[in-house]
Amino acid sequence: MSQAPAAQQLASGSEKRRGSFRQPAALYLVSTFELAERFSYFGMLAILIYYMYFPADKGGLGLEQADAAALVGAYSGAIYLAMVLGGWVADRIFGTANTLAIGAGIVLAGHITLAFVPGFSGLLVGMLLIAVGSGCTKATTASLVGSFYAPGDAQRIVGFTIFYLSLNLGALTGGIATGFLQQSFGFHAGFGAAAVGMLIGLLIYIPARSKLPAASRIVPNPATPSALLRCGGIVAVLTIALWSGFSLGILHLGDASTIVAVVALVSAGIYFTLMGRSKVVTATEFQSVVRYTPIFVASVMQVMLWMQLYTVVAVHAEARTDRSFFGFDLPPSTAIASGGLFAIILTPIVNALWTKLGTRQPSIAVKYAISLLTLGLCFITLSVSSLVPGSLIPISLLLGVIGVFYLADLIASPAGLSYATATAPKAFRSQMVALHSMSYAVGAALSGIFAQFYNPTGDASAYFLMAAIVSAATAGVLMLVRRIVRDGTSLDAAIPA
Fold first, then answer.
1. pLDDT of 39-70, one tens digit each?
2. What is the β-pairing status of strands 324-325 and 321-322?
3. Could you identify which of 268, 269, 393, 448 might form a hypothetical disulfide with 438, taking C-beta atoms 3.0 to 4.6 angstroms apart as the criterion?
């Protein structure tokens, strides 16, 4: 089918939806799959750090908390690195729809490994599989949703809202389910629930793939045999180098986050260099890319601080929190998973605020500054409440802090991605999204490095104070350079300069 008839078909379907407020059936398929996939991912993530550092008599592996934090940071960063590979596989080998199914199958294999293979080897293999598979699913689901709508379709924002709500509903229910099962039956039961969630998603998705647009099954730019060989060689060399480094004792668990951060930074540098040297990028376009750089750094810092939620704050919830909640002992993983509920509640409020402000809403740099200051407020609250060594903070305070964490993320993260696409050179729009994802990879990896300084039995207050200072300092620098970010960029009205 040629592109013109396909576009006309999309436009015709869009008109019908605008009249009836109905969404394409494929949206509900992908949204249901995303709910199941996020159930499995966040369900596993909610109990992952506890599995790493809990002693053997509590079902854990007994790792040092610093090493556990480094591994969680490295794992989270590796997922965003794998998104680049997932996007390449979708565009060059299997197509979007098939890459999504393959990625989900790899994720399922990872969860099964965690559920049934005990010990450190099961942990590493399971995390590696889930990271690679999640890179494939994250790189394809959002692009699939976007393909359901013609340009300018008024129902597009409604479709993405449904998709986002399903994502957060999965995150909420996954964390609650695995936390309960972990407390009642052990960690492997919790990982098993994550596997069941992913299996349900696959069983729903695979038989119904025919509802997806035909273009999702087409490989837009098939890879040549030499390109496949080159990509496979790079992956093999990196795998062998890392395995040898850890086997020979040259590298240690605490180095995992540093390795991911370095690889992500090098990848980001390559993207910047490619755009700077490309003959199809005009001088004006590259100036916009240069002015995006402070937002890249701001995103790195914001993600680094926000990801403390799944490292330091998760440990604090277990070790330094009175979790009595209306007569129940709330599992720490459930407290962390409550963020999904806050996201569902806060998303329409934040969207309504930006809509009401219109062109008067803050610039992208100011949004990141506000987000960082909001995170700083969270860390100040945790610092003050932890002044007395060994004291416990009330669960209600922790839940409030988690809610504000999610508010901070909603203020900046969606705007950051929009800004990255708006400043992208015409020939590098997809690569610009990949570049922005590198900021998440670096930030998540740095969160693991930063978290190694936390000690729940020591002066936790000083750690949170340090995090608050970093938040405030980064916000201050952003305010100083906000005119550099604003001037000379060509943005649409939805992203005020």
1. 999 999 999 999 999 999 999 999 999 899 99
2. unpaired
3. 268
Q: Where are the beta strands (DSSP E) in 35-105?
A: none
Q: Are strands 328-329 and 324-325 parallel, antiparallel or unpaired?
A: antiparallel
Assigned token pair, 299? 């995103």
Tokens of 357: 């402000």
CA–CA distance, 388 with 391 (Å, rounded to integer): 6
- Could you tell me which residues come within 8 angstroms of residue 410 by beta carbon, excluding any fewer than 6 positions away? 343, 346, 347, 350
Query: Residue 22 in 3-state DSSP?
Result: coil
Render pLDDT for 93-142 as a digit per residue (tens, 0 to 9).
888 889 999 999 999 999 999 999 999 999 999 999 999 999 899 878 87
Q: Give the number of residues written for the chain.
A: 497
Contact yes or no for 187/51 (Cβ under 8 A): yes
User: What is the pTM for the complete model shown?
Assistant: 0.86
Would the pLDDT of 254 be above 90?
A: no
Q: In the chain, what's the furthest Cα-to-Cα distance?
A: 69
Distance CA 308, CA 311 (A): 5
Q: What is the SS3 assignment for 322? A: strand
Tell me what pLDDT residue 111 has: 97
Judge contact between 189 and 340, C-beta under 8 A.
no
d(CA 182, CA 114): 13
pLDDT digits (tens, 9 = 90+) for 393-407: 999 999 999 999 999
Report how far residue 73's alpha carbon sits from residue 300's, in angstroms, rounded to the nearest whole number. 13
- Gap between the terminal Cα atoms of the chain: 40
Angle between helices 96-116 and 119-146 (to 10 degrees): 160
Q: Yes or no: say if 471 and 378 are a contact pair by the CB < 8 Å rule.
A: no
Helical (H) or strand (E) element with 394: strand 393-394
Q: Is the dihedral of CA 255, 257, 263, 268 positive or negative?
A: negative
Q: If we measure between CA atoms, which residue out of 387, 439, 328 comes closest to residue 76?
A: 439
pLDDT at residue 155 above 70? yes
